[in-house]
Target: 5'-nucleotidase SurE
Amino acid sequence: MARVLITNDDGYLAPGIRALAPAIAELGYDVLVVAPLLDESGVGSARARMVGRPIRTVSDEEHGVTFTGIEGTPALAVTLACVGAFGPAPDLVLSGINRGLNIGVPIFHSGTVAAALTAAGMGLSAVAVSIDSDDPAHWPTAATVAGEALGWIAEEPVGTVLTINVPDRPLDQLAGVRHASLAVPQRTRLVGTKAPTGEPMVAIERPGTPPVPGTDEALLAEGFVTVTPIVGIREVPDDAAATALAKRMTGRSS
Model:
């Protein structure tokens, strides 16, 4: 059976990863858990100071699964596992279960999603799974969805990446599974404010208007599991910028 790296951005002690890893192990996968020591939400694909620096790790065992925390980000956890720092490299990567939804174009700031994209950049397929609640009551629902998604991507071309959002409700109360487009950036707005103690702080404002039908935001609100295939940075096959710059540079090298 395939070896699966499970990581997250909420930290190796977070309830989401503690619910997910044993559920995946029960499916027969060879599970490797490597995740940040602390909450690394919103770090994107950062993996600073990676080369030439010892990285502190802490491990414990729960439900027959070893959980390893590293002093670093989700993307770093994926990188370390893929280069063999924790034994044989994984065949697949599963990131989550993230506490709280990951919707819209801003998912590219998410450490959860970035872990999956990092895996794709290293030649693996991956799934990022989030649950629509800051205080989830139904982790097993998201774990079940994650397991089914893992089985699907194992048969797909290398580099396949899915970001999935799961409603926080019992499995038999899900409305279904739907492909979802990413909600447009204008659906959320960052505003500057101050904390009660006076320090500057960023807050998120959400409009009161209904979400756009067919987006992850809208379908998740209707009770559907949302599935969105994604890719990382990709070049635009257009040489107009280079041609224009070359013309502007004409004569400057003489």
In short: The first strand starts at residue 3 and ends at 7. The two ends are 62 Å apart (CA to CA). The chain has one domain: 3-183+211-249. The chain has six helices and eleven strands.
